[in-house]
Write a structure and sequence with these properties.
344 residues, Rossmann fold, 16 strands, 34% helix, elongated, binds adenosine-5'-triphosphate
């Protein structure tokens, strides 16, 4: 009887970085084929990764590996929750928040080694308005940016850049009420982030204390701020100390309801969706199996030089040959710059 485990690699050809053909060759060379038999599927449209993963789980596939970013991970993760199929990750997005939190190496060879080690770990996931998320979700400026970003393809790069940058400068904080078991608290906020993982991606730690296994979500509320707050907020975002800023309020909860003045956009793992005035956000403990490093590498000391960090980020963006890919990468880059702006 064949005792090899079955893996399906799901490639999102349009996600952030890395040439995907190179990764497919590496898989052939580096994956332990005495342990695994594998197949590869490429997504053809948004939502396709979810369909592939749902079918894989129904067929009893052992592991579905996302070759993409947090959007692809969301699609695959939500199809695998509460199944016996584990999710693996070869990080290929522009932010890679979940993979970074799990200490999965950013280089594909290292990520394949993690698959070969085959260590399965159960992690929590969240739901906002019944939509699963694995990294972060929220309302406010971030959700607004995710919506602008989703519309960008239809309206063209220049219009997108112009509108989003302009609106980021004039974005007005809104009033929200957060209801938990002990009552309701009102906040005026630029954004409210509900975090399962500690970061948005690119080591931007919106919820530095968040854990994927504590059954709780870390809520970060960014209250209105002035230009004088910008330097400390931006440094603290990248040095895992944002929770020390006086403009930031934090809570740890299993479940909350966000009440807002009107219906509108929220985001889940960076993708926008429209919702009503009241949004239930909750964490489900250990609902997803993931393949993660046996012993996470020690966390590096907090980076002190934010400029270096930003330069590293810019330097990591490859320039690919087709105009469409360049277009998309520019959009990605802009999205991440805006994400940074939104935390300042
Ligand atoms: N073949 C496809 N055509 C169009 N869209 C796709 C296709 N496959 C997947 N998608 C969508 O592409 C979006 C972006 O992918 P993903 O989030 O993985 O990359 P990223 O945005 O570069 O990474 P990150 O979220 O880490 O910044 C996802 O929301 C996914 O639904």
């Amino acid at each position: 009887m064949d005792t090899k485990k079955r893996i399906i690699f799901v490639v999102n050809p349009i996600s952030g970085t890395h040439g995907k053909e190179f990764i497919l060759k590496l898989i052939e060379r580096e994956l332990d084929q005495s342990m695994y038999e594998y197949s590869i599927r490429k997504t053809e449209y948004a939502g396709h990764a979810s369909e592939i993963a749902t079918q894989a789980a129904a067929e009893g596939t052992d592991i579905v590996v996302a070759i993409g970013g947090d959007g692809t991970i969301n699609e695959i993760g939500r199809a695998l929750i509460h199944t016996n199929t584990a999710m693996g990750i070869i990080p290929c997005g522009s932010g890679n928040g979940l993979a970074r939190h799990l200490h999965i190496p950013m280089e594909p060879r290292g990520a394949i080694k993690v698959l070969n080690a085959g260590k399965v770990k159960a992690i929590d996931y969240g739901r906002i308005d019944n939509r699963p998320f694995f990294c972060t979700c929220g309302v406010g400026f971030d959700a607004f940016v995710s919506l602008k970003f989703a519309d960008a393809g239809k309206r063209g790069l220049l219009t997108y850049l112009e509108n989003t940058l302009h609106e980021s400068l004039t974005y007005q904080p809104e009033t929200y009420e957060i209801e938990n078991e002990s009552g309701t608290v009102r906040y005026k906020a630029f954004l409210i982030a509900c975090a399962n993982a500690s970061q948005y991606g690119n080591n931007a730690y919106i919820a530095p204390q968040a854990s994927l296994t504590d059954g709780m979500m870390d809520i970060t509320i960014l209250e209105p701020f002035t230009v004088l707050d910008v330097p400390s907020l931006s440094i603290q975002l990248f040095t895992r100390t944002l929770d020390q800023n006086s403009r930031i309020k934090t809570m740890k909860e299993k479940s909350i309801i966000i009440h807002r003045e009107k219906e509108g956009v929220f985001h889940f793992d960076g993708d926008p969706a429209m919702g009503g005035k009241d949004l239930k956000v909750e964490i489900i403990h250990q609902g997803l199996q993931v393949i993660a490093p046996i012993r996470p590498r020690r966390m590096p000391s907090p980076p002190l030089n934010i400029l270096q960090h930003f330069t590293d980020f810019i330097g990591r963006q490859p320039f690919t040959s087709t105009i469409a890919q360049k277009h998309r990468q520019l959009l990605m880059l802009n999205q991440h710059i805006l994400r940074r702006l939104s935390k300042k």
